[in-house]
Amino acid sequence: MSETTAVDFWFDPICPWAWMTSRWMMEVEQVRPVEVTWHVMSLSYLNAERDLGEKYNRLMADSWGPVRVVIAARELHGQEWVKPLYDAMGTRFHLGRQKDREVVIAEALAEVGLPGSLAAYATSDEYDEALRKSHHAGMDQVGTEVGTPVIGVEGYAFFGPVMSPAPKGDDAGRVWDGVRALASYDGFFELKRTRTREPMFD
């Protein structure tokens, strides 16, 4: 059997594009010998010193809560809760179109069986240092000109890929092979085209 390749994936729960890529990586795990470890980054932290316009600034101000709750769950209950909590939050944010952060957090905690008291960390900076460490572990590998998702594999990391819809089955594996080969070349920096569709959720 092929040796399993360790992959690291950084996400912010509010990002629909990271959600799409995460669903792809779940498909990749089924068709390639890879095992993903899930980590948080924070778009709110990334953009804290940037003026991106009133609407986006307000979104960033409101988006500390979910990622703070995920990092608190990791610190207090273990790494194994990161992915289930991400799945529960993301399903509500991106499939359910739920906008109320407090409702999403409360329902997600209940779904995965974590204490509801963790919701209090949405407005607490107690674990912000752990959040910053997790964030920088991924983002420092790719620079300041990108957001989420970030994927790390075998000593190199990259932003994206940004896709819609998420590839499935053999297509997921084929895309993984290509992305991994391209990103592994030290001189590669960018490949992009204008997005012509919104995230297409299943």
Outline the structure in words.
InterPro entries: Rv2466c-like, Thioredoxin-like_sf. This is Disulfide bond formation protein DsbA. The chain has one domain (5-184): Glutaredoxin (3-Layer(aba) Sandwich). The chain has helices at residues 16-31, 43-46, 54-61, 64-77, 82-95, 101-112, 128-139, 169-183; strands at 5-11, 34-40, 150-153, 156-159. α1 (16-31) packs across α8, α4 (64-77) runs antiparallel to α5 and α5 (82-95) packs across α6 (101-112). The protein is built from eight helices and four strands. β1 (5-11), α1 (16-31) and β2 form a beta-alpha-beta unit. It is an alpha+beta fold and 202 residues long. Strands 2-1-3-4 form a four-stranded mixed sheet. The mean pLDDT is 92.
Give the topology.
Elements: E1 5-11, H1 16-31, E2 34-40, H2 43-46, H3 54-61, H4 64-77, H5 82-95, H6 101-112, H7 128-139, E3 150-153, E4 156-159, H8 169-183
Placed side by side, the strands forming the largest sheet appear as 2-1-3-4
Kindly report the name of the CATH homologous superfamily. Answer: Glutaredoxin
Average pLDDT confidence is 92
Along the chain, the helix and strand elements come as EHEHHHHHHEEH
Q: What amount of the residues lies in strands?
A: 5-15%
Q: Count up the helices.
A: 8
What is the tally of beta strands? 4
Radius of gyration: 17 Å
Query: How many separate domains?
Result: 1
CATH fold name: Glutaredoxin
Write the CATH architecture name.
3-Layer(aba) Sandwich
Overall shape: it is globular
State the end-to-end distance. Answer: 32 Å
Helical content stands at 40-55%
